[in-house]
Design goal:
Helix content: 10-25%
Largest sheet: 6 strands, mixed
CATH topology: CNF1/YfiH-like putative cysteine hydrolases
Low-confidence stretches: none
CATH architecture: 4-Layer Sandwich
Radius of gyration: 17 Å
Number of domains: 1
Distance between the termini: 32 Å
Structural class: alpha+beta
CATH class: Alpha Beta
Shape: globular
């Protein structure tokens, strides 16, 4: 199987469990998994992926994702619980754990604070993006760790591209309700047939990270569409309810 070529400083690596995508500008352990693992309950898969991050499975902190913008903080020294809190954003300054979010067409954003050695992971589908999850994770790191946006490096993994991201007028309305102005709507949505539009989910999240104060030169996106490259990635649009999940995870250096 030929790996699709990402844009920017992303590269494929071979792990014991299969192929992983990494951003070479993120100088801490992290990864975006591929379709080589399903990650829907197989403990063996989870153990193998956690080992690629340098942790055991009980040190990989995940969430019960609900398409919102709630931020969960895993602080250094906290007693870890096996329960997954309902949230879509998790941040930490504890190098002994890895944090992650799961996707199957949605955007996964990984962040690293070079000054404070803190990290964040955000799950942003169209609902989360309409509610500006990118801003929420940056503000959460500012509040908890004293992060300055200009110290952040961001990597956005494979997601449903504009080429395949057909949405209805309710999605456009949700972005307007979330505060998106007319120029942003014009950039992020391309008119389709009838009342349908094509959503540039990647572009929207890049713009929102810039608006949150990140240096555009430290925002990197893979440019890969999960549906177009469904042989390599899990995609809900392509595989429906049988779709597996992609994991985007990161750990402090």
């Amino acid at each position: 199987m030929t790996d699709p070529q990402p844009t920017g400083p992303f590269e494929w690596t071979q792990e014991p469990w299969g192929r992983a995508l990494r951003c070479t500008r993120l100088p801490v352990p992290h990864l975006f998994t591929s379709r080589d693992v399903t990650l829907r309950g197989d403990e063996t898969e989870w153990t193998a992926v956690a080992e690629s991050l340098g942790v055991s499975t009980d040190r990989l902190r995940l969430l019960k994702q609900v398409h919102g913008t709630t931020v969960v903080t895993a602080r250094r020294g906290d007693v870890l619980s096996s329960a997954r809190p309902e949230a879509d954003i998790i941040i930490t300054n504890d190098p002994s754990i890895a944090i992650g979010v799961r996707t199957a067409d949605c955007a996964a954003i990984l962040l690293y604070d070079r000054a404070k050695n803190a990290v964040g992971a955000a799950h942003a589908g169209w609902r989360g993006t309409a509610a500006n999850a990118a801003r929420a994770v940056v503000r959460g790191m500012e509040k908890e760790f004293g992060t300055k946006p200009e110290d952040l490096i961001a990597a956005i993994g494979p997601l449903l591209g504009q080429c395949c991201g057909e949405v209805g007028p309710d999605v456009v309305d949700a972005f307007r309700a979330g505060g998106a102005d007319a120029p942003s709507i014009g950039r992020w949505f391309t008119p389709g047939t009838g009342d349908r539009s094509w959503l540039d989910l990647e572009g929207a999240n890049v713009d929102q990270l810039k608006a949150a104060g990140l240096d555009p030169r430290t925002i990197f996106a893979s440019g890969l569409c999960t549906k177009t490259e469904q042989h390599r990635f899990h995609s809900y649009r392509a595989h429906g309810s049988n779709a597996g999940r992609l994991l985007a995870a990161i750990r402090c250096g």
